[in-house]
Amino acid sequence: MLLIPAIDLKNGECVRLRQGRMDDVTVFSKDPVAMAQRWADEGAERLHVVDLDGAMKGEPVNLRVVEAIAKAIGIPVQIGGGIRDEETVQRYLDAGVEYVIIGTRAVNAPHFLHDLCLEYPRHIIVGLDAVDGRVALNGWTKVTGHDVIETALHCERDGVEAIIYTDIGRDGMMNGFNEEATGNLARALKTPVFASGGVSALADIERLRTLSDDGVAGAVIGRALYEGSLDFKAAVKLAKS
Prior knowledge:
Layout: E1 2-10, E2 13-18, E3 21-29, H1 32-41, E4 47-51, H2 52-57, H3 63-72, E5 77-80, H4 86-94, E6 99-102, H5 104-108, H6 110-119, E7 124-131, E8 134-137, E9 142-147, H7 148-158, E10 162-167, H8 179-188, E11 193-196, H9 202-210, E12 216-221, H10 223-227, H11 232-240
Parallel strand pairs: 1-4, 1-12, 4-5, 5-6, 6-7, 7-10, 10-11, 11-12
Antiparallel strand pairs: 1-2, 2-3, 7-8, 8-9
Helix pairs in contact: 1-3, 9-11
């Protein structure tokens, strides 16, 4: 099971949001590269980076910071936030990023996702963010009528490498991930699913492990690591036991 520390970038700083609200921001570090190195040193095998400014603007804003992170650490980096065209995908891959996460355009322009999966096999991940089982777009500002599982099945047919499922209601709240919804999604797919939002204690890692046979491959973890409620080294040890 793969546990992936998250670094959310806003104005070049490492921050966390609560429930995706850009007006509820906590700055945890002004040096995202040093933070990325910390997680690599503590045993991370992959790093999750989100360009929050890019998610709102619809184009990369913190590209130089992401490139610096990718060059500084010796583990794969996955990046999301504001990736709306193939040129941006290529720029990130050229910058040393291993996986590019498509969110909004995977839903409102499915042909785009299909073409990317053909052009960049094994490099495309889809991030599905949801409220009550419905997909949210544009930096979580718009909730659609699209069902998460139906949308994920379309993405799987296109050949995505993985699905990252975020329950917005749990994100940054540190009250546990949505075990039922995550498990239901994983069981509906053959593609690996990563939980995101709410993983905050070793008990959550135990719950994730019970879903591994259903296709849950791990989790993206954010605020709990920065506020100290979850020791990353201990979490990794438990995940691998």
